[in-house]
From TrEMBL, chain A:
Ranges for domain ABC transmembrane type-1: 27-226
InterPro entries in the cross-refs: AA_ABC_transptr_permease_3TM, ABC_transp_permease_HisMQ, MetI-like, MetI-like_sf
Family listed: Belongs to the binding-protein-dependent transport system permease family. HisMQ subfamily.
Name assigned to this protein: ABC transporter permease subunit
Cited Gene3D superfamilies: MetI-like (1.10.3720.10)
Residue intervals passing through the bilayer: 33-55, 76-98, 104-121, 155-175, 204-225
Keyword Transferase: no
Family matches, as Pfam families: BPD_transp_1 (PF00528)
Species this chain originates from: Paracoccus aerius
Automatic annotation (TrEMBL), chain B:
Alphabetical list of Pfam families matching this protein: ABC_tran (PF00005)
CDD domains named among the record's database cross-references: ABC_HisP_GlnQ
Subcellular locations according to the entry: Cell membrane
Keyword ATP-binding annotated: yes
Organism of provenance: Paracoccus aerius
Domain ABC transporter: 14-259
Keywords linked to the UniProt accession: ATP-binding, Cell membrane, Membrane, Nucleotide-binding, Transport
Similarity remark: Belongs to the ABC transporter superfamily.
Record-given protein name: ATP-binding cassette domain-containing protein
Bilayer disposition of the protein: Peripheral membrane protein
């Protein structure tokens, strides 16, 4: 079929017939959703970890329930549940408000669903990191008259970063890979596009290997970035001999 | 200094009455009264576990006392039961305002490790007192110079010696132009050869008339700089007075025995 066939890889299909571009668009969508989900998870994680540490008994119980459930149920199941329940809820609310059927935006749904899952893991990562901040530094903030929110923003959160970053980088990698689960919802991210391309050309090996490489490259770049972030976050700390 | 826009300075920088504190069934403070006039240096001495740190922390309500009143610079801190048998400040705004001018220096320095010395020193003036950043930086450079750290202002605390860290912590405390400074064993975490440099800074502050409450195990230092020495024992003030009297002629057998440990 083509002249560019190396090691059983059909490069012609990738380079000249537009499938490569389709994969890149899929990758872009995957990364966008992963980024949105990771950011949403981070926001949930910050609030939920603070709630878990400093909230009242009811708040603590509810958050414990959230993190426990999300972390025990397989992600694929959660995604299906949250997606369909979420869609029903949105439509119920829309119905009440007198709107007709609302089409759920795939990307927004992906961000929401994955972010909800990520949030549970972020919560635990950040909670642990906050507990690693020497309590004296927090007390010093209070002793100088800072509000609780100022102590959190100026002291606790920046000081917990070195301990949180390795866990958070890991969560980012998971977020990228978990976008593949959205393929079950028919959302056109990298894995879904790959399946389509492979299906219609019957070049399974070529396309799944190409997709695997794209995921790998994205991860490698992420690792470089997170290494740099870690160095920056640790700027005030002596070199750790284990690092 | 730019922050000296206080209304009238009360002759009493600090006045507390009847401070009690229990942890569970263990009563650590059993009714402490103390007054520090402007410029007073009150040294609090006593054995380990006698409640010195607890008392100091009750002054700015890092610890909630079970009973008592605290007046700072003539202003009573309004209190309410905290639901755990202790008293909490009833106004967050008031206690934050008072804390922001009651600087505390800790045994373990407690500098913010993610901030340089300069950032540590300007943090409270800028974020809490609302000082212009530019002005705060000038003031911080000046203060860090005074404690001999002018060449380290952009360094992070963890890379400095304990003595340097504690001097930076003192500069941080001075930056809010405090009504009174609270020191909790500022030299106890230091190697012996670093104690002197920190005591020298504190002595200079005493000489310029700073009001200080100082928990210390450095008896010679207390004798030299304090205007009043308070000996805590079992949660009570066992004896208090001018350093010469207290150290030269202890009345109680307990104080005599305590001082004997330092001979
Ligand atoms: N948060 C707490 N919970 C329970 N007990 C406490 C707490 N803080 C202090 N205590 C107890 O209160 C007593 C007085 O402690 P405090 O730290 O005030 O003593 P100190 O005079 O400062 O001693 P040191 O010289 O060792 O610093 C001790 O018996 C201590 O165990
Ligand atoms: Mg103590």
């Amino acid at each position: 079929m083509s002249s560019l066939n190396i090691l059983g890889l059909n490069l012609e299909l990738l380079l000249n017939e537009g499938w490569g571009e389709a994969l890149l668009i899929g990758l872009y969508r995957s990364l966008t959703i992963a980024f949105g989900a990771f950011a949403l998870g981070l926001v949930i994680g910050i609030f939920a970890s603070v709630g878990k540490l400093y909230g009242n008994a009811i708040v603590k119980q509810l958050l414990e329930l959230y993190t426990t459930i999300v972390r025990s149920v397989p992600e694929l199941v959660l995604i299906l549940i949250v997606y369909f329940v979420g869609a029903d809820l949105v439509n119920a609310v829309a119905g009440l408000l007198g709107y007709s059927y609302v089409e759920i935006n795939g990307a927004a749904a992906g961000v929401f669903v994955l972010g909800f899952v990520q949030g549970a893991y972020s919560t635990e990562v950040i909670r642990g990191a906050i507990l690693s901040v020497p309590v004296g530094q927090i007390e010093a903030g209070r002793a100088f008259g800072m509000t609780g929110a100022a102590v959190l923003r100026r002291i606790t959160l920046p000081a917990m970063l070195p301990a949180a970053l390795p866990g958070l980088s890991n969560l980012w990698l998971i977020a990228m890979k978990d976008t593949a689960l959205l393929a079950v919802l028919g959302f056109g991210e990298l894995t879904q596009v790959t399946r389509q391309a492979a299906g219609s050309t019957k070049e399974y090996f070529t396309f799944f290997l190409a997709a695997g490489c794209l995921y790998l490259i994205a991860s490698l770049i992420s690792n470089v970035v997170s290494r740099r972030l870690e160095v920056w976050a640790r700027r005030g700390l002596p070199q750790d001999i284990r690092a | 200094m730019s922050l000296s826009s206080d209304a009238v300075a009360s002759p009493e920088a600090l006045h507390v009455e009847g401070i009690r504190k229990s942890f569970g069934s263990h009563e650590v403070l059993k009714g402490i009264d103390l007054t520090a006039l402007q410029g007073d240096v009150v040294a609090i001495i006593g054995g380990s576990g006698s409640g010195k740190s607890t008392f100091l922390r009750c002054l700015n309500f890092l610890e909630h006392p079970s009973a008592g009143t605290v007046r700072i610079n003539g202003e009573d801190i309004s209190l309410k039961p905290d639901g755990h048998g202790n008293l909490a400040p009833s106004s967050g705004a008031q206690i934050r305002r008072i804390r922001s001018r009651l600087a505390m220096v800790f045994q373990s320095f407690n500098l913010w490790t993610h901030m340089t010395l300069l950032e540590n020193v300007i943090e409270a003036p800028v974020r809490v007192l609302g000082l212009e950043r530019k002005e705060a930086v000038l003031q911080a450079e000046d203060l860090l110079n005074r404690v001999g750290l002018g060449h380290k202002i952009h360094e992070y605390p963890s890379f400095l010696s304990g003595g340097q860290q504690q001097r930076a912590a003192i500069a941080r405390a001075l930056a809010v132009n405090p009504y009174a400074m609270l020191f909790d064993e500022p030299t106890s975490a230091l190697d012996p050869e670093l104690v002197g440099e920190v005591l020298k800074v504190i002595t200079a502050l005493a000489e310029e008339g700073r009001t200080m409450v100082l928990v210390t195990h450095e008896m010679a230092f207390a004798r030299e700089v304090a205007s009043k020495v308070v000996f805590l024992h079992n949660g009570r003030i066992e004896e208090q007075g001018a350093p010469a009297e207290l150290f030269g002629n202890p009345q109680s057998e307990r104080l005599a025995r305590f001082l004997g440990n330092f001979q």
